[in-house]
Write a structure and sequence with these properties.
Helix content: 25-40%
EC number: 6.3.4.20
GO molecular function, one term: zinc ion binding
Strand order of the largest sheet: 3-2-1-4-5
Number of strands: 5
Number of helices: 7
Family: Belongs to the QueC family.
Mean pLDDT: 91
Order of helices and strands: EHEHEHEHHEHH
InterPro entries: QueC (IPR018317), Rossmann-like_a/b/a_fold (IPR014729)
CATH topology: Rossmann fold
Pathway: Purine metabolism; 7-cyano-7-deazaguanine biosynthesis
Structural class: alpha/beta
């Protein structure tokens, strides 16, 4: 019988690829998405499409409201920075699109979900290559969280669960991720990565996550199939 695994699924390029990887490795995925007050909530519709296309034992959308804290362009009225190229993106610091403690919060929900379905594995799409520089996407953070997680649950303390956090994209470039997803048959046309899409769900093409995505497809020798506002 396939092993259950929690897969954090935003509906974007990275997490959609991770869902395909988890299935390819023989896991039965339990997808977990979040409605956290993000301005780009269109990604949740993408997550639903991804689950419908790829399949999952269950798809949970958890409701939390990080707008009560703000502090990010994704959860407040701060404008999402736009650029003509990646060369012009913010350098050296953590960008304003960083949502305070987001991955810690998401992983905590995944930890609770894992314990209820007897899963010892959590998959996340964090990467430390071709990314925005978020502090909660680094390998040392993931390692530290896994150590803490095994001290934080009844299953961990009683020895019935030894949790492992899988981050298969950690050392992959966006081009590598695209190539792997295409190899696994991922339909990227149903995904959504943009931080500031329009009312029709079309990507802006100028926020950092759009530029990173476009770079990945270009370097992989492929064309991004999602709709862009300037297309």
């Amino acid at each position: 019988m396939a092993r259950p695994a929690i897969v954090l699924l935003s509906g974007g390029l990275d997490s959609t690829t991770v869902l395909a990887i988890a299935k390819d490795q023989g896991y039965t995925p339990y997808a977990l998405s979040f409605r956290y007050g993000q301005r780009h909530s269109v990604e949740l519709e993408a997550a639903k499409r991804v689950v419908e296309a790829q399949g999952a034992a269950r798809h949970v959308i958890a409701d939390i409201d990080l707008r009560v804290f703000g502090g990010s362009a994704l959860t407040s009225d701060i404008e999402v920075p736009k650029h003509d190229s990646l060369d012009r993106t913010e350098g050296g610091g953590v960008p304003i699109t960083y949502v305070p403690a987001r991955n810690t919060i998401f992983l905590s929900f995944a930890l609770a979900y894992a314990e209820t379905v007897n899963a010892s594995d959590i998959f996340t799409g964090v990467t430390a290559v071709d990314y925005s520089g978020y502090p909660d996407c680094r390998p040392e953070y993931i390692d530290a969280y896994a150590k803490m997680a095994n001290l934080a649950t009844r299953a961990g303390v009683e020895g019935t669960q030894q949790l492992k956090i899988h981050s298969p994209l950690m050392e992959m470039s966006k081009a590598d991720i695209v190539r792997e997803g295409l190899r696994l048959g991922v339909d990227y046309s149903i995904t959504s990565s943009c931080y500031d899409p329009d009312e029709q769900g079309r990507a802006c093409g100028r926020c950092e996550t759009c530029l990173l995505r476009l770079k990945g497809f270009a370097e992989a020798g492929s064309t991004d199939p999602v709709r862009y506002q300037d297309a």
